[in-house]
Design brief:
alpha/beta, single chain, 5-stranded parallel sheet, binds zinc ion, 3 domains
Length: 175
């Protein structure tokens, strides 16, 4: 049985422990022990998800000014959600035959750089530009992960609400 070991995280420089059973697991799946602490590893694993940071940028289809979770310095082509969900462009045009003689990730990267990205997850928003991962909002501001709200601001997980501010995971039910 391997011994536990204290390491210094290469990212935050904090001490962390690798337990004997963790070493056995890393041996089993044939990967080296981690050099980042558990919290830094979690942050790195979750970094793919941006839900609340919105950037100003141009829509690469209409050239209009839009808000997006993808910052303008990124190499991706980004379409406003109204265009992205519309028939104004045809996703089939971006289809590529898979080339078995080339590495998968090389081809996947090429596809990611060519295919238009959705600027933010949004559907049917009226006067609610600063919202994300949301649908059916009217006159809302900084509302995330929310649906069917009107005249609300500063909320997360807000559903079927009206005139609500500073709420988290709040739902009203129609009776
Ligand atoms: Zn760390």
């Amino acid at each position: 049985m391997p011994q536990s070991a204290q390491k210094i995280c290469q990212n935050c420089q904090q001490k962390f422990i690798i337990e004997p059973e963790d070493f056995l697991f890393y041996e089993k799946i044939k990967v080296p022990p981690p050099t980042f602490c558990p919290e830094c590893r979690l942050i790195r694993r979750m970094s793919w998800r941006n839900e609340k940071s919105l950037y100003k940028r141009k829509c690469d289809f209409s050239k209009e000014n839009i808000f997006s979770v993808i910052s303008p310095d990124k190499p991706f082509k980004v379409y406003n959600y109204k265009t992205w969900w519309s028939d104004e462009w045809d996703p089939i045009n971006y289809g590529q035959a898979y080339d078995f003689s080339k590495p998968f990730f090389e081809q996947f990267k090429k596809l990611l750089l060519e295919f238009p990205w959705l600027n933010r997850f949004a559907t049917n928003l009226v006067n609610s530009d600063y919202c994300m991962n949301a649908a059916h909002l009217k006159n809302c501001y900084l509302i995330f992960y929310s649906n069917y709200n009107e005249d609300c601001a500063f909320g997360n997980g807000l559903h079927q609400a009206k005139d609500c501010f500073d709420n988290s995971y709040f739902r009203t039910y129609a009776v």
